[in-house]
Amino acid sequence: MPEGDTIHRLARALSPIWVGARVERLWLREHGEVETLRGARVHEVSALGKHLLVGLLGEREAWVLHTHLGMPGRWHPASEGAPWRQREVPAVELAVAGDVPPWRCTRPATCELLRRRALRLHPELLRLGPDLLAPPVPLDAVLRRARRSPNALAAELLLDQRVACGLGNVYKNELLFLFGVHPRTAVAALADDEITALFRRGAELLAANLGPGRRRTRGLGDAAPRGPRFWVYDRAGRPCLRCGETICLERVGDAARVTYWCPRCQADARTRERRAPDALAGAAPEGHSLHTRRVGRRVGGPL
Ligand SMILES: [Zn+2]
Asked: How far apart are CA 107 and CA 69, in angstroms?
């Protein structure tokens, strides 16, 4: 699932092969080939949260190719001239001069070509909070943004890209577990230092996953990590790796995002006592819900 680390890794991979190169062909599914940008120079490939921005210097104007992969989207190289199957018609294909295969983006949530000067007025990008992969992260600003939605749920807070951008559903689940926060805890019930600790650790986890290898939140730094890569994510019905309780699955928030949690380590939102993240193992499993339901209200768009 693409999260901020995925897009920053992608930008780091594409920069050396694209930046400085001339565009041979930019093809957009909605427009066909953009002939005015044939010969344009790629001057920047950057990530902003989960958004990839490719800067293009045309003859007269500067442009930006903006993509957001959503959940199923991906950028991938393709052999030049290789046919694409109908169901995988890409949203965009970019070929640059040199011994580099074209790259295609399939099934993105957003794919658009913008004039660079329009970027600062972009309705989605304008609202983004600080990028957790752009240190130093201004945690005081993140906290202020978090406090704008006191009735949001903790599970929604971490996904709200207007608060801070980069975290997705995998890190949301893992962070709430690591800090013993029930996903249905209201933001208003979280202390300032809990909120900043969640985002600080989120930034650390994102940064720790910028290298090669599959994303993980367990065994980071181990030479040969063993066991599950995650504490709770995608582990519904299996025993908690900390306390042995069965991991639950709920769809939480107005967006009904899949949420995994341990009913023992993450005490119920209505009754839980605040505690330090390292003192969670003995928490009582009170009042947890095992059935799937939608709770909460919408706090953000699909940024
Ligand atoms: Zn547990």
From this structure: 7
298 burial class (0-12, 13-18, 19+ CB within 10 angstroms)? exposed
| Surrounding residues of ion ligand 1, Cβ less than 5 A | 240, 242-243, 245, 262, 264-265
Catalytically annotated residue among 50, 93, 250, 263: 50
Rounded CA gap, 126 and 207, in Å? 23
Residue 73 near residue 48, CB atoms below 8 Å: no
- Residue 23 near residue 57 (C-beta atoms within 8 A): no
pTM (2 d.p.): 0.84
Has 35 been annotated as catalytic? Answer: no
Q: Report the run of H or E that residue 32 belongs to, with start and end.
A: strand 32-33
Residues in the chain: 303
What order of strands is seen across the sheet that includes strand 62-68? Answer: 41-48, 51-57, 62-68, 110-115
* Number of other residues whose CB lies within 10 A of the CB of residue 86: 6
Q: 39, 77, 69, 72: which is closest to 57 by C-alpha? A: 39
DSSP 8-state symbol, 279: S
User: What's the pLDDT tens digit per position in 199-251?
Assistant: 999 999 999 999 988 999 999 878 788 899 999 999 999 999 999 999 999 99
Asked about 2 being catalytic, the answer comes back as yes
Answer yes or no: 239 catalytic: no
User: How far is it, in rounded angstroms, from Cα 270 to Cα 273?
Assistant: 9
Burial class of 82 by CB neighbour count within 10 A (0 to 12, 13 to 18, 19+): exposed
Burial class (CB in 10 A: 0-12, 13-18, 19+), 6: buried
Query: Could you report the per-residue pLDDT of 94-124, keeping only the tens digit for each?
Result: 999 998 899 999 999 999 999 999 998 999 9
Give the domains, in start order, of the chain with CATH numbers. Answer: 4-127 (3.20.190.10), 139-261 (1.10.8.50)
Give me ligand 1 centre to Cα 215, in Å. Answer: 21
